[in-house]
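Q: I'm building a small set of examples for a reading group on sequence design. Run inverse folding on the following structure and report the sequence directly after it, with nothing in between.
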C-alpha cells in the first residue's frame, strides 16, 4: 500500500494566550488549517497563569496533559483535574463556557487540539469526557511505546473519525503505522528528531509535518535521544471553516 510522504514542514510559533500562558501554535500556520483540524497548541502554563472563563462553539477539543496537571470547569457543572498522561475531551457543540487552569504549583504542559464538527453536528448539545493516564490504551513493541489518545481501544468519542497516537521511539528505532487512506493528517514532534515518510523528511521538536496522500506513515528516530511525536489524522469534512477566536462556525 502506498506510503505517505511529508508535504510541508512548519515550525510552531510561540505566542501569548489566555492570562499569562505561552503556547507554541502549530495550527493554524502559514498553510492555514488542516481540515478537520483547526488548531494545535503545545501549551506551557505556570500558576497563576491560565485560561480563565471563555466560551467555545462549533468544534471538539482534546487536551492531552504531558506534564503537571490541568483543571477544567464548565457551564455543564464539570469540575475536573487531569494529571500527566490523561486527557480531557470537550464537545463544544452549540456552546459551552469553561476555564482551564493548571493544577498544583508547577508547570502544566500539554497539547490542545481542536477538531472541527461537521456542519450538521454544530448544533449538538455540549459534552465533556476525561480519561486518567491509566485509561489511555498503550501498546509496547521493540523500542516503541504507543499511547492511543483517540483511535482503536480508546474510549474517547469524537464526532469526526480521528486517529491520535503519542509515539516514543528509542534511538535508531523504525516505526510504521497504517492510517486510513481517507484521513488527512500530520505529525508534531515533541522531543528528539528523526526522519518521516516515504522521502525521509527530517523532523525536530516543535515542528509539524503535514502528510500527503497514502496509507502507511513511517518514521525512524535519529541521534542519541528518544524521539517523541504525536500522529494526528482524521477524515476531512470538506466544508468551509470559519475560525473566529474561540468559535468555529
Ligand atoms: Fe478553552
Amino acid at each position: 500500500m502506498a506510503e505517505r510522504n511529508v508535504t510541508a514542514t512548519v515550525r510552531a510559533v510561540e505566542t501569548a494566550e489566555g492570562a499569562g500562558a505561552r503556547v507554541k501554535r502549530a495550527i493554524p500556520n502559514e498553510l492555514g488549517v488542516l481540515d478537520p483540524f483547526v488548531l494545535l497548541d503545545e501549551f506551557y502554563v505556570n500558576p497563576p497563569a491560565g485560561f480563565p472563563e471563555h466560551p467555545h462553539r462549533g468544534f471538539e477539543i482534546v487536551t492531552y496533559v504531558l506534564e503537571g496537571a490541568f483543571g477544567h470547569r464548565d457551564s455543564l457543572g464539570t469540575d475536573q483535574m487531569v494529571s500527566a498522561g490523561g486527557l480531557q475531551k470537550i464537545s463544544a457543540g452549540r456552546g459551552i463556557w469553561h476555564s482551564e487552569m493548571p493544577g498544583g504549583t508547577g508547570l502544566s504542559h500539554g497539547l490542545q487540539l481542536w477538531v472541527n464538527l461537521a456542519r450538521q453536528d454544530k448544533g449538538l448539545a455540549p459534552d465533556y469526557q476525561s480519561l486518567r493516564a491509566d485509561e489511555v490504551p498503550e501498546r509496547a513493541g521493540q523500542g516503541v511505546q504507543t499511547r492511543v489518545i483517540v483511535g482503536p481501544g480508546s474510549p474517547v468519542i469524537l464526532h469526526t473519525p480521528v486517529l491520535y497516537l503519542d509515539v516514543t521511539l528509542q534511538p535508531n528505532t523504525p516505526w510504521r503505522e497504517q492510517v486510513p487512506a481517507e484521513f488527512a493528517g500530520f505529525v508534531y514532534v515533541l522531543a528528539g528528531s528523526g526522519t518521516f515518510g516515504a522521502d525521509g523528511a527530517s523532523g525536530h521538536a516543535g515542528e509539524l509535518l503535514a502528510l500527503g496522500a497514502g496509507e502507511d506513515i513511517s518514521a525512524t528516530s535519529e541521534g542519541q535521544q528518544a524521539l517523541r511525536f504525536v500522529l494526528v489524522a482524521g477524515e476531512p469534512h470538506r466544508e468551509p471553516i470559519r475560525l473566529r477566536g474561540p468559535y468555529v462556525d
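The pocket of fe (iii) ion is lined by residues 51, 54, 56, 98, 100 (CB under 6 Å).
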